[in-house]
């Protein structure tokens, strides 16, 4: 759940992207899964296995997924609910132009496989014709500018990367918090990250060969002649683009949000691209100032736009237009796209069936329209009230933790408490629902609907420019199984879909809810005070409010956490990157500690009830570890370690080793694998 600049999510994008719909029964009072534990494992040696070992042994990863676990199970259940909502909309007589009509028609259009097959590439032909008509550098700039979209996921999920040649994220200015500005992001690669193009390891070399083969296969399906040679040139162009990109660790630095360029700076600092034509086509021709998150990538794109042959650029653009829209084209294109992006890159052997994909795509296109119906059916006011109470208790616990920090100066403490006081916490759904009146959905036009949704989202993003900043804005739909902190807005979203078992269940003991959803809430609150979020003040400005001594102490604690996570090695040749995952790890440690304090406070001085022989503290920590229950295929796990800011779930469960109370709850002794000397346990907040 995570940005650094704009959003911090709980679950990694690489994991969320692997979630797939499947039949999942409605929960009936889910508490701790006792049968899923492995009590033959000592908690102090492997707490993740102790809490989940029997489940891990007995549960295979379904063939249509790259991962399976608690998040997937909840997502499955949510998708089943959402599917019923969409089907009900399809069977009703919806008024023309209503949200229900758009939901029904978008879904029905994708389900019309025969109609899509019969049309072939015809729906994409206007795009391909425009690419084919490129005859000079100015027309190339126009077409490149026309590919720019509001790539929300690139920033929200902390990838800082967009599939388009450049991405635009319209968000609150980090220094002038009263206005929105456009942030420009690097992009344009078919594989997930620059490392896939520049890493010299044999595995990456193998993936590069498979990427070239995939590019050729797509061009052959489109009956483009000389496909192998064209694919080789397209891949080489992407490799050169990748060389200009910032590595993931550099992209994480929120200070990139101060790279301000005026409109005239583009011509001087990034020559080679007709920026007037590019920005005009991107709908940004009148914009006077920008934040360029990746200056080197922008400069590199401009240089390559001038130096690479026009025919290579045209092949590149044609390939990406087809590959990006493959799921809305005849089945052969979708199958090839999944074979590479699904099987090769994530290890998932089987593509999900069309009905499940249709639900996912409709959800993505009309998220809040579907979400409004979801909330009406599945998120009662009583559930919202209980979560809001837990949130308030954890905020109070965090406030007490701030007061108890002996090392923190009074000035820094006052600023931290001021920031905590203004956090706007959204539970379940937004204060105001989104208006889809400007979106046209046409039954029978699957690709056209998808393209219109992209443009609707982009125009909606650009429309924020010049408007007052809205702190109540949500970046997730209610049916999203995740949560988010928005440091620049001092706001958080906890969607309705994550507020269900095993994360939240109002019918189970409070210790379990505090260990699961409480730790999630604490995690998101803590993101306001992690290595990135702590750089924003109570107004959302990128502003240092720390004394030098306090900042030095904070960085020393963070360095201990980096070392701890650097020591985790899922593969002989690949370790977790403690620097890359630092923000999430800080939030896990601080969030779990605050949730524990809030849980103990909720007892009012009374002992927690013992359940199935487990004390309240044991229930708390086991619930936390079971909330991270998951299995990932090796290629997907490698992809996460290389490019995602979240550590693998197993090691997130090991966060417990930094809390003294865990040692007492499970009688953890020196010499056990997870034991950390008291002086080395990380206490950031």
Structure notes:
By secondary structure, the protein is α/β, with parallel strands linked by helices. It has 2 domains: 8-28 and 47-82 and 366-440 and 466-680, Collagenase (Catalytic Domain), CATH 3.40.390; 121-321, Orthogonal Bundle (Neutral endopeptidase, domain 2), CATH 1.10.1380. 52% of the residues lie in helices and 6% in strands. A 5-stranded mixed sheet has the order 3-4-5-7-6. It has a 4-stranded mixed sheet with strand order 1-9-10-8, with helices on one face. A two-stranded antiparallel sheet has the order 2-11. Helix 7 runs parallel beside helix 14, helix 20 (381-403) packs antiparallel against helix 21 and helix 23 (510-527) packs across helix 25 (582-602). 53% of the residues are buried.
The CATH superfamily of the largest domain appears as Collagenase (Catalytic Domain)
CATH class of the largest domain: Alpha Beta
Number of domains: 2
Fraction in beta strands? 5-15%
Annotation keywords:
single chain; 685 residues; alpha/beta; Collagenase (Catalytic Domain); Neutral endopeptidase, domain 2; 2 domains; four-stranded mixed β-sheet; 29 helices; 52% helix; 6% strand; disordered N terminus
Task: Walk me through the topology.
Elements lengths: L7 E2 L3 H4 L30 H12 L8 E3 H22 L7 H13 L1 H7 L5 H8 L4 H10 L2 E2 L1 H5 L9 E7 L7 E7 L8 H4 L3 H20 L5 H18 L3 H4 L8 E3 H7 L5 H7 L7 E4 L2 H13 L2 H15 L6 H16 L7 H12 L1 H12 L2 H23 L6 H12 L2 E5 L17 H17 L21 E3 L4 E5 L14 H18 L20 H19 L15 H21 L13 H12 L2 E3 L1 H10 L5 H5 L6 H7 L19
Parallel strand pairs: 3-4, 5-7, 8-10
Antiparallel strand pairs: 1-9, 2-11, 4-5, 6-7, 9-10
């Amino acid at each position: 759940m995570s940005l650094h600049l704009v959003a911090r999510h709980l679950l990694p994008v690489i994991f969320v992207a692997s979630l797939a719909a499947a039949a999942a029964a409605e929960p009936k009072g889910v508490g701790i899964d006792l049968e899923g534990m492995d009590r033959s494992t000592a908690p102090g040696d492997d707490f993740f296995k102790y809490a989940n070992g029997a489940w891990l042994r007995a549960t295979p990863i379904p063939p249509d997924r790259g991962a399976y676990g608690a998040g997937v199970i909840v997502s499955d259940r949510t998708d089943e609910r959402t599917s019923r909502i969409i089907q009900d909309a399809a069977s009703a007589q919806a008024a023309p132009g209503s949200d229900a009509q758009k939901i029904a028609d978008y879904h029905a259009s994708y389900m019309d496989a025969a109609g899509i097959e019969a049309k072939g590439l015809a729906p994409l032909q206007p795009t391909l014709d425009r690419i084919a008509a490129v005859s000079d550098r100015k027309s190339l700039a126009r077409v490149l500018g026309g590919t720019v979209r509001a790539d929300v996921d690139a920033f929200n999920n902390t990838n800082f990367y967009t599939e388009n040649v450049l991405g635009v994220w319209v968000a609150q200015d980090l220094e002038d918090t009263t206005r929105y500005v456009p942030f420009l992001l690097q992009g344009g690669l078919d594989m997930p990250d620059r490392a896939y193009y520049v890493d010299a390891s044999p595995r990456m070399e193998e993936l590069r060969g498979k990427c070239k083969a995939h590019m050729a296969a797509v061009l052959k399906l489109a009956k483009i002649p000389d496909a192998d040679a064209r694919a080789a040139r397209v891949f080489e162009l992407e490799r050169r683009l990748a060389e200009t990109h910032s590595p993931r660790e550099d992209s994480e630095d929120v200070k990139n949000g101060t790279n301000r360029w005026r409109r005239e700076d583009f011509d001087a600092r990034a020559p080679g691209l007709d920026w007037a034509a590019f920005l005009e086509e991107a709908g940004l021709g009148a914009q006077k100032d920008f934040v360029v998150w990746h200056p080197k990538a922008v400069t590199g794109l401009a240089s390559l736009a001038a130096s690479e042959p026009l025919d290579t650029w045209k092949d590149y653009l044609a390939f990406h237009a087809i590959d990006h829209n493959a799921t809305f084209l005849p089945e052969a294109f979708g199958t090839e796209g999944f074979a590479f992006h699904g099987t090769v890159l994530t290890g998932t052997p089987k593509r999900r069936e069309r009905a499940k994909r249709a639900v996912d795509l409709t959800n993505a296109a009309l998220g809040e329209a579907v979400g409004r119906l979801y909330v009406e059916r599945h998120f009662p006011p009583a559930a919202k009230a209980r979560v809001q109470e837990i949130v308030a208790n954890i905020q109070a616990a965090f406030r007490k933790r701030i007061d108890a920090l002996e090392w923190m100066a009074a000035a820094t403490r006052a600023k931290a408490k001021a920031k905590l006081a203004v956090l706007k916490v959204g539970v379940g759904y937004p204060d105001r629902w989104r208006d889809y009146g400007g979106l046209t959905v046409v039954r029978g036009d699957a690709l056209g609907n998808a393209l219109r949704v992209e443009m609707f989202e982009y125009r909606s993003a650009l429309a924020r420019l010049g408007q007052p900043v809205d702190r109540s804005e949500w970046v997730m739909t209610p049916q999203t199984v995740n949560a988010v902190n928005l440091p620049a807005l001092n706001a958080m979203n906890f969607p309705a879909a994550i507020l269900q078992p095993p994360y939240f269940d109002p019918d189970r003991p409070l210790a379990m809810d505090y260990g699961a959803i409480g730790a999630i809430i604490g995690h998101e609150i803590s993101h306001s005070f992690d290595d990135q979020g702590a750089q924003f003040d109570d107004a959302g400005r990128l502003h240092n409010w720390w004394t030098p001594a306090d900042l030095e102490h904070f960085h020393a604690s963070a360095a201990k956490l980096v070392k701890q996570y650097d020591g985790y090695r899922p593969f002989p040749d690949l370790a977790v990157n403690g620097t890359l995952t630092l923000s999430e790890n800080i939030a896990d440690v601080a969030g779990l500690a605050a949730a524990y304090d809030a849980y103990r406070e909720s007892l009012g001085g009374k002992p927690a009830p013992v359940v199935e022989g487990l004390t309240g503290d044991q229930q708390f920590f086991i619930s936390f570890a079971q909330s991270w229950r998951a299995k990932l295929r090796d290629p997907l796990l490698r992809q996460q370690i290389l490019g995602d800011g979240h550590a693998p779930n197993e090691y997130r469960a090991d966060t417990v080793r930094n809390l003294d109370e865990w040692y007492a709850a499970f009688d953890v002794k020196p010499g056990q694998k997870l034991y950390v000397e008291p002086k080395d346990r990380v206490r950031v907040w």
